[in-house]
């Protein structure tokens, strides 16, 4: 087992990373890095965050280590761009983050003691509400979930936060009638061929599915990801078998594809 990093070792390494960013942004630095702006970096930050998530799922620590490093580099790069523009310093960013984490964990850094995770969540929400009030903002138990969060994940998190104040179904079973109701409303909208209504009802159905997932203790984004991968694996196997038979997928009758699909499902 590798020895834990000494705190004294972290400072120089972080400074080295900032120095690398500064060198890349210098007049004689990298042309690509010099062209970047916060707007252009957004997509890369998101991509790297997803790569970290994927590495965690793969269970390969060295890959996780590498991907976290890539994400950290981009976050430092992003902060450095704002420092260049005079908006804030990297030091300000680190200071604010440290202060916030200490302020929101009085049970660790203060005298109050909590032993249950649920108590921590409740306390965290109250602290956030006080922070919002101090800034003259209206607070909500829903918080400020990013609009750009994948919609299914955001639905899951919205339901999760509303449930903290008791706005929730008693059990997963209670959601099945709601699911049937949303299905019926969607079916009626389809019959009427009302595009806007179909759009709305389909959204309601997906939102209900996200909440059912939450009540079952399953993250819907992860469940859908697994379903996507399963479909892709099976479909590629379907294509492979048909190619082996010398057949072109678009020329194969649906009945034959369905029969082969069922055969593939039994095997994997």
Describe the structure.
It is a single chain. By secondary structure, the chain is mostly helical. The chain has three domains: 7-88, MazG-like (Helix Hairpins, Orthogonal Bundle); 151-218, MazG-like (Helix Hairpins, Orthogonal Bundle), CATH 1.10.287.1080; 222-267. 73% of the residues lie in helices and 0% in strands. It is built from twelve helices and no strands. Helix 3 packs antiparallel against helix 4. It is extended. The model has no long low-confidence stretch (mean pLDDT 93).
DSSP summary: helix tally: 12
**Number of separate structural domains:** 3
What is the element string, with H for helices and E for strands?
HHHHHHHHHHHH
**Hey, roughly how much beta strand do the residues contain?**
under 5%
CATH superfamily of the largest domain: MazG-like
Provide the CATH top-level class of the largest domain.
Mainly Alpha
Oligomer: single chain
Notable traits:
268 residues; mainly alpha; Helix Hairpins; 12 helices
TL;DR of this structure?
With 268 residues, this protein is an all-alpha fold.
Topology diagram in text:
Blueprint lengths: L6 H19 L5 H5 L2 H21 L2 H24 L5 H14 L2 H4 L7 H18 L16 H13 L11 H18 L2 H21 L4 H25 L9 H14 L1
